[in-house]
Design brief:
By secondary structure, the chain is mainly β. The chain contains ten helices and 45 strands. The strands form eight sheets. It has a 17-stranded mixed beta sheet that branches. The longest helix is centred in the first third of the chain and has 11 residues, at 53-63. It is globular and about 85 Å long.
Length: 756
């Protein structure tokens, strides 16, 4: 039987309307390498798919449980990465490492049990308990899932034969229903397909439904989908009807099934759009990197799963995961500095348990390696720039571009070109009638942000280039010769934006009150110390007053909001350099000269978990290391574009980060008129990247949007599908109480932790 993932991930309308032609790519290196054999997941998105987007997400999510590897092995724990399968509605960008909140995995704990009888036709039954699944508005729900799989997916039937039920509760303890849903494959001679129904209950009521039925050879079919919503004051709904053949899709839309044009038109030919089923606009959602020399997949050590005692009763009852981006834990408030955690290592013999100690610091030290970009190369890049006059004008920030006299401005320079605001659908830009030049004094620096360049960008007046930075977090393991902690203690010197010490309400009242006045003579630089051992490891200490640079203990989110502090997201220092670099500075502005300062450090602190450092050390006091993302300076071109046309990004430089397992980020994105975020370009399979051309890129998830095909749907007629659209749930997810499982997680983020 095919895997649970290979079965359920295909149970979407995308399969129904995708081209029957197989997706292929030019082989890289030899046949049989991981590059050539790793599959690509191809799906189609259309507005008609929106009612079942949640299904795609849930099925992607449950695919991480790897249930087919644990048949009749008893219940086990799986930690699934929510961010892999659920789209970021806010359009947040994870291109910069300082965006730690976006990059830290958010794991959901699941108890999974897969069983099958001994008979050759006995179904595979998978039961899943999710005690705390993320919900809207920061709330969570408890969910039960039950899947009964009679036949696995095959070339003849990509849906197989199954039923999939889920039930949502405000908690398992209360049992208060929040709704549920059902997916079922159809059983019609010479036909394949599925139906779907979901109902939400609570402060608002919603429903989604679909019926998708097609010929066994997938050359023709009918599909209906709908969604509705009401909250007592108003209601709204959408319904879609699709008829398709081997070449095209006839799409009709209305506010309900009853008002679809074919219901009101005798011949069923009323149309909203005619789309191509063979020609798509493609974008890539996930990539993997492979070694160019042999086609092997680039693997990174993402971290360790552990258990810990969350209530100090002597029982290791909670689970967590620690890696490069920090720590995730079931009960994070109880995972204090100095806590003991246990990591189980599984091999061919008896598992071994190793104890580590949690090491927390109230901030995060960030190493920056300077990269340069000439001003002429910045033409066409949008920068984000915060200044007080942006807020005074009613915006969150300015959109800035480098313009020259060729663009019609009076002088070359950086200009405010639009105001940016954050609305319900993400950032919204309002162009200015006339670009406004940002004037700078001699050696004055302009600090901006660029999604394209991976985060912080700086331009100093008088330079012919700007600088951006490859960043990596310091975790205390940098003890080799020439590294920061080679002597166990590091001294850093600061010229500008030097934190005054521990930050209380007074220091956090404004943007500048957290910092000392700038130093005019490098000889008077303010000195800070950081150690990787001792009482306060990895904490930045200001030498002049002995204070740790952190938020004071009495500062809370509520107090920051009450005082209208601008520092709720944290405070970051200016550039700090080691003694050997400091010795080369002859004036204060040398700190921003990329020919003098090629590496510098910044300290970030705040109340948020992503403002802080969490590491672990072994019994010998050795801090454990995890692979940092691979950072690659990349220039996009027509030849490297999936479509062959890079457009405005032709010959544009970007900073890419690869965090393993499909996590390649740094490609700019934008919001479409449908409210969805999508990449502004896609990299072609087989593109060679890296400083030494050591990596090759391949898409793992491709999304196609059907192109318009006006006038080509005359032969298509929309009728009722052979399987009626469901109006209720016929099965149930009554799988009983959640089992008590105390063993370590068997699967994390779709990766099996123990051999089966």
């Amino acid at each position: 039987m095919k895997s649970l993932n290979s079965l359920i991930i295909k149970n979407t309308l995308a399969i129904a309307i995708a081209s029957t032609a197989s997706i292929s790519w030019a082989a890289f290196d030899d046949e049989g390498t991981q590059y050539t054999t790793d599959p690509q997941r191809y799906h189609i998105w259309n507005e008609a798919l929106k009612p079942i987007e949640l299904v795609n997400s849930i099925l992607c999510f449950t695919g991480q449980f790897k249930a087919h590897n644990f048949v009749n092995a008893g219940p086990y724990i799986a930690l699934a990465d929510e961010g892999i399968c659920f789209e970021d509605e806010g359009g947040g960008d994870a291109s910069s490492q300082s965006a730690g909140s976006a990059n830290t995995p958010v794991y959901m704990k699941a108890i999974v049990e897969a069983t099958r009888g001994s008979g050759p036709t006995d179904p595979l039954i998978v039961k899943v308990w999710l005690p705390e699944m993320g919900g809207g508005g920061g709330e969570s729900q408890s969910i039960k899932l039950k899947s009964v799989i009679n036949k696995g997916a095959s070339e003849e039937n990509p849906f197989g034969s199954f039923t999939f039920n889920f039930a949502m509760y405000d908690s398992f303890a209360s049992g208060q229903s929040m709704g549920g849903g059902e997916i079922k494959t159809v059983d019609i001679p010479n036909k394949i397909g599925f139906t779907f129904f979901e109902q939400e209950l609570g402060d608002h009521n919603g429903a989604k439904s679909a019926s998708v039925v097609m010929s066994a050879d997938r050359t023709s079919g009918i599909a209906l989908t709908s969604s509705s919503y009401s909250n007592g004051e108003f209601s709204q709904g959408n319904a879609f009807g699709l008829a398709f053949n081997g070449s095209n899709v006839l799409l009709q839309t209305a506010d309900s099934y009853a008002n679809l044009p074919y219901k009101l038109d005798d011949d069923g030919s009323g149309t909203e759009a005619c789309l191509s089923r063979t020609i798509f606009d493609e974008t890539v959602g996930r990539y993997d990197l492979y070694n160019a020399a042999d086609g092997s997949r680039v693997e990174l050590n993402s971290g360790l799963a552990f258990k810990y005692d969350s209530d100090e009763d002597g029982t290791f009852d909670s689970f967590g995961h620690v890696g490069y981006w920090g720590v995730w834990a079931e009960n994070p408030d109880s995972l204090v500095n100095g806590a003991t955690i246990k990591v189980e290592t599984h091999g061919s013999s008896t598992p071994t348990t190793t104890e580590y100690t949690i090491l927390k610091a109230p901030g995060r030290l960030i190493k920056n390696t300077v990269q340069e970009l000439t001003l002429s190369e910045t033409h066409g890049i949008d920068f984000s720039y915060w200044s007080q006059d942006a807020q005074q004008a009613g915006y969150n920030s300015w959109v800035v571009q480098y313009l020259t006299t060729m663009d019609g401005v009076s002088a070359d320079g950086f200009y405010k070109t639009a105001g940016s605001s954050h609305g319900d659908q993400g950032p919204m830009n309002e162009p200015l009638t006339t670009p406004v030049l940002i004037t700078l004094g001699d050696h004055e620096s302009l600090h901006m942000n660029s999604q394209q360049l991976g985060g912080n960008v700086q331009f100093t007046q008088g330079n012919t280039s700007l600088t951006f930075f490859k960043q990596e977090f310091v975790n205390g393991s940098e003890t080799a010769a020439g590294e920061l902690f080679a002597d166990g203690s590091a001294t850093l010197r600061c010229i500008d934006r030097c934190p005054v010490g521990t930050l209380g309400a007074t220091e956090l009242a404004s943007w500048d009150s957290a910092y000392s006045p700038p130093v005019s003579d490098p000889a008077n630089a303010i000195v800070f110390t950081v150690n990787n051992t001792g009482l306060n490891p990895l904490a930045l200490v200001r030498d002049s007053n002995g204070e740790i640079v952190k938020y004071a203990d009495d500062v809370t989110e509520a107090s920051l909001q009450a005082s209208n502090s601008p520092n709720s997201w944290g405070v970051r220092s200016g550039r700090m350099v080691t003694a050997d670099v400091h010795a080369t500075l002859t004036n204060a502005w040398d700190i921003h000269n990329p020919s003098i300062v090629t590496v510098f450090y910044e300290w970030e602190t705040g109340l948020n978990s992503f403002n802080k450092t969490t590491s672990i050390k072994d019994a010998d006091g050795v801090i454990q290391t995890f692979d940092k993302p691979i950072q690659i300076t990349y220039t996009h071109t027509d030849a490297k574009d999936r479509t062959g046309n890079a457009g405005e990004f032709d010959n544009k430089l970007l900073l890419l980060n690869y965090g393993g397992s499909g996590q390649l980020w740094g490609i700019p994105s934008a919001q479409s008129d449908k409210g969805r975020y999508h990449p502004l370009f896609s990299i072609a399979d087989g593109t060679i990247i890296g400083s030494d051309d050591q990596y090759v890129v391949k898409a793992r998830e491709v999304e196609g949007a059907m192109q318009n095909a006006a006038g080509q749907c005359d032969s298509l007629v929309l009728t009722e599908p052979d399987e009626p659209v469901p109006t209720a749930i016929t099965g149930n997810a009554d799988i009983g109480d959640m089992p008590d499982v105390t063993s370590a997680p068997a699967v994390i983020g779709g990766v099996i932790q123990t051999p089966q």
